[in-house]
Amino acid sequence: MTMPTDSQHSQALLGETLLAQLRLAGFTVTEEHYVRLFSLLDRLEGQCHLQDLRTLLCPLFATNCDEQESFYKVFDQWYPHATAAIVDLADDKPPSSDTTPDGPSLHPPPNRTAYLAVAIVIAIALTGILWVLWPEPSPQPITPSDNNSHQDFGSSTRSPAPQEAGQLPPSPDNKAETMPTPPRTPSPAPEPLPPPPNLLTQLRNQTFSLPLLQIYAIVLVALLCLMASLALRWRYKRQRRRWTLEVLSRERQLQPPFSWPLQVETKIQDIFNVEDYRTAARELRKPYRSNLYRLDIPATISATITSVGYPELRYKADNQSPEYLVLIDRVSNRDHQAQAYVQLTKFLERHGVYLSRWLYESDPRACWDEQFASPFSLEELAARYSQSRLLLFGDGARLQDASTGELYPWTNIFMNWNDRAILTPRTPEAWGDPEFLLASSFVVLPATSHGLLALTEQYESAGISTLRSIDNRNPIPSLFFSPLETDPETTDAIHELKDYLGKEGFRWICACALHSELHWDVTLRLASLPEIGVNLLTEQRLLRLIRLPWFRTGKLPHALRKKLVESGDPVVMHAACQSLITILERNRPPRGTFALDRHEISLAFQRWLIENSPENRKSLKGCLGLVKLPPFFGQVVKPRLW
Description:
The chain is an alpha/beta fold. The protein has helices spanning 7-24, 31-43, 53-56, 58-61, 65-91, 112-132, 147-152, 199-205, 210-251, 269-272, 275-284, 297-306, 336-350, 378-384, 433-438, 449-461, 490-512, 520-527, 539-546, 550-553, 558-567, 570-586, 594-610, 614-624, 631-641; strands at residues 288-295, 315-320, 323-329, 354-360, 366-368, 376-377, 389-393, 400-401, 406-407, 420-424, 443-446. It is elongated.
């Protein structure tokens, strides 16, 4: 089956379902993957079969053999469903809509709870009608029976026997005398009861018994309830399909971007404007004696005079200002850890340190500048910045081969730099064999102010060693070293976060959970709220927060986000909502983009949290009707809205 010509309509179906399957399989999906996937689908429109995407899309998500095999398994499971969905969309033409990309859809999403309530009401109504029309049982007349029958059935009270003529009744004086009794005559055996008439006999004689009528009425009501339930279920599925087609039809008119950055004025320079960082900046820009030599004019003149006019040239080592090549590991465009290191290097630049900053995604063999114009290979950077000092911000996990426990052969490229160091985000208390392996070829230090001061001392001693005694405070809990796409146990996570971040830090992360995305500027702006705490934005608290894996991907798990929103202090959450409303109103995405839908949902959600008024409820319902309901809104918002 070739790819359909209606590209945007099919991409919304193919791309979203495939990315959802990849997330469930453990792949990390960022905005860059969205852009690359849909760009490739645009170029391949009508030029290849759907099965060919198996090998064309694999390099976008897989970086090794294991991930390649996992991708092929996910694609093989996804392919039959995608083919069936394309056939259905080709047969069912989406209904025409007169709405604009920014307006609400014609039909709101069907509410399953409403249909269930209607079914319950119908069942109650039919039961009530049956109860009202139920005939009351009439009392059965008691037919008289002879004494023999009473005696035969063992009656406890017997009638006195008739007295013969001339016989006196017994007197109280003759108690011992026994009265003669007449002989009993045997009573006839009781006749057997006739069997109950069957349905045909009752219909023929037009006589109905009450229990059988009740059974027929109950069966009739049950059939009516079953038919009503099936009809409501069919109508719900029909409206759900119709709403899905309308959403897909509306998405055909939307354009990227899928996410919009939120820019806020922050005071990040105050974090690094401390004595330790200023001292580190002075030490890092201190000139050093290079391998280049130049002519020493005073020494040459003195030597020439001493040799009676014979020229004697004297040279001296030249002092050179150091230059630095900085490589920063970045997982996503909302990676707080990478943003903190970028701000740190900008602070060093403002204090006279010469450096060139590059970003890479896990693998440093491909690096980008901050504009992400075009990638540069590590060999090109080695040729361009061979005289610079290398600073690599990251854990260096992709430099090691997990199967052999050794560094990859391509890491020999780093030997082109005489001075090279790795500043890792992991605290020395959590260091293990990977850090000791890196220490054989790099200076390994923590990415803190103490680590930078130790780095300057390391440059002066010109040695390579590992320091485990620096910044051993507050190691990250082992719970948060789980895979990024796996939700930890939310109950344990809440207790661990309270112990790890402290009281004020926990308020901070609860305020961050109000927004669906974690943005660097928004996180810093929320830290400045007086309701959270005074002087919250410090180096120690910031480093604790950005070490969490969720602040690297820029997204909290839905279950954990729900718990954080419910555990937040009401005063702090109210102030955070007001701040987020101001930020969202000042950073509105362009019209006709996917990012505008998410922006409007988040804005309506913040207003609804502040005031649960009918207008805000209606606005939030209208925004949720434009897109498929995210899991967080299905768990937290939907039960409170409907």
